[in-house]
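2024-03-11 09:14:02 DEBUG pipeline.ingest accepted 1 chain
2024-03-11 09:14:02 DEBUG pipeline.ingest length=686
2024-03-11 09:14:03 DEBUG pipeline.predict start
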Amino acid sequence: MTLNHNILMKQFAWKAAFAALALTTITSSKAMAQRQGANIDPQETYVLEVGNEMVTLSDFKHVYGKNNRDSVYTIEALDEYMKLFVNFKLKVLEAEAIGMDTVTAFKKELAGYRTQLARPYLVDGDLLDALVDQAFERKRTEVRASHMLINVDANAAPADTLNAWNRIQALRQRVENGEDFESVARSKGGSEDPSVTTNGGDLGWFTAFQMVYPFENAAFTTNEGEVSKIVRTRFGYHILKVTGKRKARGEVQVAHIMVRMPQDAPQDQVANAEGRIMEVKRKLIDGASFESMAMKYSEDPSTANKGGLLPRFGTGKMVEAFENAAFAMNQIGDITGPVRTNYGFHILKLIDKKTLPTLEESRRELSKKVRRDSRAEITKTSFVNKLKKEYGTSVSSRRLDALKLAAVGIDSLFYPGHPLEGLRRSELSRTLFSVAGKDYTVQDFVTWANAGKVRNLNRPNAMLVTQEVDRFVDESLLAYEDTQLEAKHDDFRLLMEEYHDGILLFELTDQKVWSRAVTDSSGLVDFHSRNREEFMWPSRLDAGIHTCEDAKIAKKVRKELRKTGDVEGLRRELIADRPLALRNETGKFVEGDNAFVDRAFAGLRDKSLTADKNGLIVLETTEGGEQIILVHVKEEMAPTPKSLMECRGAAIAAYQDHLEQEWILELERKFPHKINREALYSLVRE
């Protein structure tokens, strides 16, 4: 089995090779140990010895099950799969033998994949699942809330933070004392959200992932009609008043026709716009096409040429009046409106409406959103805290205090090349913290800080040092844990071995088979000439198919065919006045190429059709019309070999198979293998 090199893409192309082989390589930890000269575990049952590598029955079973999930064990299936597996292992052994796994480009590519694959293992998986479940439940509900904001930077000085807290607390107290929430938000010293002047703090309806996570939490955990506790986000301090909760409405797709009108337009302009949209509505009621009306009359330039079609949307994506009208429609094709918004008048047509997916249907997408959302930091922080407990990692308070003193000369700590101030040289070699027995010194932190990793130096010195030491600890813990993934997670180890062997397989097979078959022109020519019988044309008809608009045109075609055998000149004469009067298709046809030629094949074979002396067959008069199809058979062609040009793609694919078979025979001689069939067939008896 192989793949035509021309259809492979370099990025992740080895996955396609895996799919073609129906095989994913797994090298057991015992096998890896064997490569390194370690002893074989006498407790294990080995199903395959290939080269100097041993494969356990349990690992082979894992591989087989991964790629044959719905298949039962049979001797025939196991033998077939084992053959593929052996061939695969031979290729990987050859790649390692010639040092392909030591090349810089290979190491860099594998390291890139490892970075991506490691990410899910460096977060709190249980918490991630819980956050996905929480997000799913929240997506089933929509919340409406108003808020007030007092701006404060996330890294503000304590005095500024306290001042912001006192201000938001005072606003909350005014509401608690009975003042109207909107009035307080709009008042002097009230909300610092610029939109408060137009919306009074009302944010409309929203659901999960549409607000920053702390704000979302406050909205979903506050009862309707109540004011939340003070919540801090990266924007500052907020209080919310939840004004409504309802069941989520899902998603909808509509097309619209819009007549533009400014929100503050004078009455005569409003009347003019309303008159125009009502005229469009009248035409629609009379049966005009919505799409054509949108193209002709809609003043939304981004959608008019698409028949008014808008992307699918859910709550919070459109202005409220537009959303409400869209979700109020139930039957596909329903039309509603005119609806007035800040942009003008709209008529809407329902294109599609979808309810919320199930948890299983949405889990993958929700998981992606959680990983991209600020929730991801929660899972990372939780994971790091677990690592601190596991490795007993804590920062020395004495060393931290010494660093805080040194930070008085901020340049000396966070910019390279500056002499350290306020920090004794003896402190540099002291242990700041430890991870799994490895000590990280004060100097290690200074070196890390000097590497340009620190941003936003406009923080109070003590806060800056504390936060950056914490970040250094987190990075160090995660870096160490990254090195332990293969040892701690068997599935990750196996996955990395898949990628390791898969990249090698692709690169070497590309050299030996795929690219070689394409570039080895003399070898391809020789292979084709020795296997011409494998690339044959079946019986063909050299024919012309002439579709005539009516009997008069058919008569002219017959006359011209008898006279010259070619009607292309006649078609050109007719095309100016009657473009569809005559259509010609000529070529060498095999059965299956053309339905009319197929009927000619069958008719000539069973003699139900006969060609006149000019080879002309009148095949069909279209039922209910005047169209006549004439098939002009120039020659009945016996089976003949295809030229290399005519079968180049198929010849390259066959040449690839040939090269691979020869290569496998060579590898079998180089790396002898032995199959423990008694162990292999024991799977049938399970």
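2024-03-11 09:14:41 DEBUG pipeline.report Confidence is low (pLDDT under 50) at residues 1-39.
2024-03-11 09:14:41 DEBUG pipeline.predict end
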